[in-house]
Design goal:
8-stranded parallel β-sheet; about 550 residues; 4-stranded antiparallel β-sheet; alpha/beta; single chain; 15 helices
C-alpha cells in the first residue's frame, strides 16, 4: 500500500522549487551521541518551514559502514542505527508533509558498500560466481595478472581497481569499499526499480541520483592512455562517465516515478562535459532536473556569470526542463570561502541565484553565512580522499562541520554530546538563535528573499532573463512583472541610471537599500526611490519594479 501523499497538489512544483540539502550527520543530533540523526532532523523541520523552502533533500541515511559518509550503502531499504530506524524516517516524511515540505532522498546507484550482501557473496563464491557478473570483476594484466585491468584512476586517488586474494580485480571509481555495479546486468536494473518503489511507497517525493553520469562504462573498459584523470572531470569525454547508455536506464526510472501521484521527481548529479550533454538527462521522458555544476564552478565575475547563465538557460529550453542553480553542497568548499571569503559577496551571490529562473538548491548552513572550516586537525578528518595519495584535496570535511543552532559555545545547540567534527570557537554570532530577528543577519536575508520569491510571480518561474545595459563588472537583468536585478561583482562602488520604482531587497546590510529586509512582512517589502542607485563594492543586489 502506498503511503498517503497529503501535500496539496501543485502542477510542476519542481520547476521553480527551492530545495534545501540536509547532510544528516551534521544537521542536528537528537540523541546526544555527537552525530546528527533523523530525530534531530525531525526536531528542526520547523526551521526549514520558517526559512521558506519548498523541499528537503536528505543525504544518505541508509545502513552503511560509513567508509564514505554513507555513500557506501550496505542495505538500501534499512536505516543505519546511527541515524535511527525506519519508523524515524517515516516520521520525518509524515511531519515534513504536514508542514508543507516535500522530502527528496539520495539514491546511490553507481556503487554500493563492500558489505552489501551481493558483493559479500560474490567474494565468498570466488571466480566464476554469477554474482560477480553484477559488478566489474576482471583478470589483471601482466604475466601473472599483477597489473590492473586498465589504467583508470579512482576519484579518491590511486588505481580504480583492487586485487583480491583469488587474483581477480574489481572496479571502484571511488573508495575500495565502494565497488561499482555492472548496470548491463538485468538484476541490477530490477533491484533499483524495486528500491525506488520501496521509498515511493513510504511517501518520499523524489530522489537525488548520486553519480548519475557514472552507471554505464564504455564497452571493453578501454584505457584512458594518460594519468591525472581527476583534473579532467566535467570538461572531458571519459570512458567511465556520461555514456549514452545511462539514458535508457533513466527512461525506466521515469516510468516508475510517473506511476505515483503527487509529481514525484528525480534530480541528477551529473558531471557532463557541456551543458548540452547535461540537458540530455532531463529530456521529457527522463529525469526532472540536473545539478548545474557549470554555474557552481563559475567565479565571481560578471562576464563569466552572464555567459554561464545564458548557456544554462539555452541548453534547457529544447528539452523543456528548468535550469537549476546551486552554490554549495556537501562535496565542495562553501561558497562564502570559495568566492573569496567575503560574507557580503556570499549574500550577493545568494540573491543573484534566487533571482534566476528555475529551481535553486541551498546547502545547510549557507543561510547562516557559514564559512568553510579550513583548519580541522588531521586526526579528526574523515573524508576518504584525504587519506589517499593523488586524490581530491581531501577537504570535504570542512563543509560538513555540524550546524550551530544556539548558545555561546560549542556544540551550539547541535546536541548534548561532542560533535563528530569540532566546531569553530567563533561561531556564536552565526547561530540560528543569534541571527533570528536581526534584520541585518544572513538568516533573515534568506527568509526575506525566499518570502519574496514565493509571493512575487516574477521570480523563479520562466526560462529567460532580459539583459539590460550596465557598467563593466555589473549584471543587470529584467524578470517578468518588471522586476530588475542588478549585481556588482567589482571591488568599487558603481552608479547606475535612476529607475523610478520600489526597492525590494538588497544583500548589503548597511545599505539604505537593505531597508526592505528589515521590514517585518511581505506587504512591507518595498520603499519608494527615484534616485541614482549606488551599488557598493561587490555586495549589493536589489529588485526593482
Amino acid at each position: 500500500m502506498t503511503a498517503q501523499h497529503n501535500l496539496t497538489p501543485a502542477t510542476d512544483w519542481w520547476r521553480d522549487a527551492v530545495i534545501y540539502q540536509v547532510y544528516p550527520r551534521s544537521f542536528a543530533d537528537g540523541n546526544g551521541d555527537g552525530m546528527g540523526d533523523l530525530a534531530g532532523i525531525r526536531s528542526r523541520l520547523p526551521h526549514l518551514r520558517s526559512l521558506g523552502v519548498d523541499a528537503v533533500w536528505l543525504s544518505p541515511f541508509y545502513a552503511s559502514p560509513q567508509a564514505d559518509g554513507g555513500y557506501d550503502v550496505a542495505d538500501y531499504r534499512a536505516i543505519d542505527p546511527m541515524f535511527g530506524t525506519l519508523s524515524d524516517a517515516e516520521a520525518v516524511i509524515r511531519e515534513a508533509h504536514d508542514l508543507g515540505l516535500r522530502i527528496i532522498v539520495d539514491i546511490v546507484p553507481n556503487h554500493c558498500s563492500d558489505r552489501h550482501e551481493w558483493f559479500r557473496r560474490a567474494l565468498a563464491e570466488g571466480p566464476g560466481s554469477v554474482l560477480r557478473e553484477r559488478f566489474h570483476f576482471r583478470k589483471g594484466r601482466g604475466q601473472n595478472g599483477e597489473a590492473p585491468p586498465n589504467d583508470w584512476e579512482s576519484i579518491f586517488g590511486g588505481p580504480a581497481w583492487t586485487r583480491l586474494a583469488d587474483g581477480e580485480w574489481y572496479l571502484h571509481l571511488f573508495a575500495p569499499e565502494q565497488p561499482d555495479f555492472n548496470w548491463e546486468h538485468p538484476a541490477v536494473q530490477d533491484e533499483f526499480r524495486s528500491i525506488l518503489r520501496f521509498w515511493l511507497d513510504l511517501g518520499v517525493d523524489g530522489f537525488r541520483v548520486d553519480v548519475a553520469h557514472g552507471l554505464v562504462k564504455a564497452a571493453g573498459l578501454p584505457d584512458m592512455g594518460h594519468g591525472e584523470q581527476l583534473t579532467l572531470l566535467g570538461n572531458q569525454v571519459l570512458p567511465f562517465f556520461d555514456q549514452d547508455g545511462v539514458h535508457d536506464i533513466y527512461r525506466t526510472w521515469r516510468a516508475v516515478l510517473d506511476e505515483y501521484p503527487g509529481e514525484r521527481i528525480a534530480v541528477a548529479e551529473a558531471w557532463a562535459p557541456t551543458t548540452a550533454r547535461t540537458a540530455l538527462y532531463v529530456r521529457p521522458d527522463e529525469l526532472h532536473q540536473a545539478f548545474n555544476f557549470h554555474y557552481l564552478n563559475t567565479g565571481w565575475d560578471a562576464d563569466s556569470l552572464r555567459a554561464v547563465i545564458d548557456e544554462s538557460l539555452e541548453a534547457m529550453r529544447p528539452v523543456d526542463a528548468p535550469a537549476t542553480w546551486v552554490l554549495s553542497n556537501h562535496d565542495v568548499v562553501r561558497h562564502r570561502t570559495r568566492l573569496g571569503g567575503s560574507l557580503d559577496r556570499a549574500r550577493a551571490a545568494a540573491l543573484l541565484m534566487l533571482a534566476l529562473p528555475g529551481s535553486a538548491y541551498l546547502y545547510q548552513g549557507e543561510e547562516l553565512g557559514l564559512p568553510e572550516v579550513t583548519d580541522l586537525p588531521d586526526d579528526v578528518r574523515q573524508d576518504p580522499s584525504f587519506f589517499r595519495a593523488n586524490g581530491q584535496d581531501g577537504l570535504r570535511d570542512g563543509c560538513r562541520v555540524p550546524l550551530p543552532w544556539g548558545e555561546a559555545a560549542p556544540p551550539y545547540g547541535f546536541g548534548d554530546g561532542t560533535p563528530w567534527l569540532p566546531q569553530p570557537a567563533d561561531w556564536a554570532p552565526l547561530t540560528v538563535q543569534a541571527q533570528t530577528g536581526d534584520p541585518d543577519s544572513t538568516l533573515e536575508l534568506y527568509r526575506t528573499a525566499l518570502d519574496l520569491r514565493r509571493t512575487h510571480p516574477g521570480l523563479g518561474a520562466g526560462d529567460a532573463v532580459e539583459w539590460l545595459d550596465a557598467p563593466a563588472g555589473v549584471l543587470a537583468f529584467r524578470r517578468p512583472g518588471g522586476l530588475i536585478c542588478t549585481v556588482n561583482t567589482t571591488e568599487a562602488a558603481v552608479t547606475l541610471p535612476a529607475r523610478p520604482g520600489r526597492v525590494l531587497l538588497s544583500s548589503l546590510p548597511s545599505s539604505p537599500l537593505a531597508a526592505a529586509s528589515r521590514l517585518p512582512s511581505s506587504s512591507s517589502h518595498v520603499v519608494n526611490t527615484e534616485s541614482d542607485r549606488m551599488v557598493a563594492a561587490d555586495t549589493t543586489i536589489w529588485w526593482e519594479e
